[in-house]
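Our collaborator T.R. sent over the components below with a one-line note: 'Predict the complex.' Nothing else. No constraints on interfaces, no templates requested, no preferences about which chain binds where. So this is a plain run: every listed entity goes in together, and whatever single assembly comes back becomes the starting point for the next discussion.
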Amino acid sequence: MPIRNIGLKALCLFGALALAACASDPESTTDGSGSGGGANSTPPPQVQQSAKPVQEGPAPGSQEDLDLNVGSLVFFDYDQSELTPEGQETVKRWAQWLNQYPSVTVSIEGHCDERGTREYNLGLGERRASSARSFLVALGVDESRLGTISYGKERPVCGGSNEACWSQNRRGQLLVN
Amino acid sequence: MMGIPMRLGLGALVFALLLVGGTGTPRAQGLQITVTSGNVDPLPMAVTDFHGSNETAGQVGRDMSRVISDNLERSGLFDALDRKAFLEKPEDMLVQPNFAQWRVINAQALVTGKVQQKSDGQLRVEFRLWDVFASEQMEGIGYETTPANWRRIAHIISDAIYKRLTGEEGYFDTRIVYVAEKGPPDRREKRLAIMDQDGDNNRFLTDGSYLVLTPRFSPSRQEITYLSYYRNKPRVYIYNIDTGRQEVLGDFPGMTYAPRFSPEGDRVIMSLAQSGNSEIYSMDLRTRVIRRLTRNPAIDTSPCYSPDSKRIVFNSDRGGTQQLYVMNADGSDQRRISFGKGRYATPVWSPRGDLIAFTKFRKGKFHIGVMHPDGSGERLLTTSFLDEAPTWSPNGRVLMYFRQERSKSDGVAGRVRLRSIDLTGYNEREIITPTDASDPAWSPLAPLN
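Returned assembly:
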């Protein structure tokens, strides 16, 4: 049941309280239910069990599925929160994917590079997350499935102090709950 | 005599000491430092070990002398002379120093003191500040306190000396709350921490299991307001330093951030982000009534009251990029005040009211600077890859901020440290912290009661 791993992974990225649990190896942990089911406590989606059993690839509707087959990141220009044309294409794919898995709820994280002040960047990260969210809603995704959270400049994916890293860090990130 | 006996926190007594020798009439041109004149020549000063009545008292006396000497030296206004050059011993100065001995080493000011341990274990600490060239006492104050409280008394004495010599309130009996950091940039652990102004008594207030940012002291209570990501919901909290209790402030539908107390401590002003739009709100801490102060699709954040609570300075990108604006406390009369090239952020009103400190970003460099509340007279005090978040000493003479160095290309985080600089732009120095440190906030001067 790979779906359990999905839940765990989402917890690792989201749950401050679950940090301790996640510090252990999530892959080897099979019992994710105790850590607070949340969105996953509803019955699992009607995965076509009758179809051929899933072998290697990620479970449909999972974070891995999103990361691998759709892409969970959109990037922004410096001090901008408008989606770029490429960003719009990504968010369109998000919308299709979300429509494919209607029981999935997500959170959109907004992030900034380190070349700004902390408080302003919290506002900017929120604006970026909101920008992607608005576009998803315009594309027909139900608002109730879409949360936002801003991390400002607190959670870069790339640690270096150079433009190559900064451009990766100015991002919106879609996370499956 | 027993001038004005008053109670001091932690049960200390304060009393003025009889003037010994001189008449107490200050010289026409008394020993005085002007602190506003920029690069002053530090005043040569001898801080002697306080004489102890027994071994315990002697150790306290030596320790206090070090703390006082270090405080004064760090202010940049005093040059603490090397003890090895001292010709007179503490036990020979119990009544009055031999001024000639101190003129030889060119000490202009001299600090002596004594510590007596009473039969109940309490300490009686006295210090005297002498004008060496006028051969007279400038100040003399005694304290009664528990031995455990010696360090705080040393800070209080430092403030008394600073005040007598500069005419300004001191800032040594204060604390700093800040964010202690460690780990790689993508998994940075951040904890609330608090320490004395000189870096001593460092203590962590949170355990690092959730992200915390931007702590600020209450001016009137043992409380800190800050942003916490507890349970992954970024919200403004209040932390009680005495009890360790943390309380979320209000029940808002979105992220609240950038909190700061009003000068009376009766409100918190902060931003609320909803649907990507950040607006400034104030909350009455007693009634919990909130009031919206800005209405603008821009990011309005980093609000800070003027010391008279009548005005608010804040940061907004409503004009295209981040600039500083002021408004009345009710939100009326919003006006831009920064017009220089570059982006301006994190405005903080000086406790004296005459200046606003800020972070400026221009051409790849960050600066800490100050300007008048009408935007005139901009002066940049620091420059680096990233300087951010100034906070004022309670006397408005010193700014503390943090400096982050470049991270390495392999992703190892650059050093992040607290620094202080005199308002004149001189005496820039690093504050020693056990880990990386950011987001400093200076406490008010502790009340002497």
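Summary for T.R.: Residues 1-10, 19-29 of chain B have pLDDT under 50 and may be disordered.
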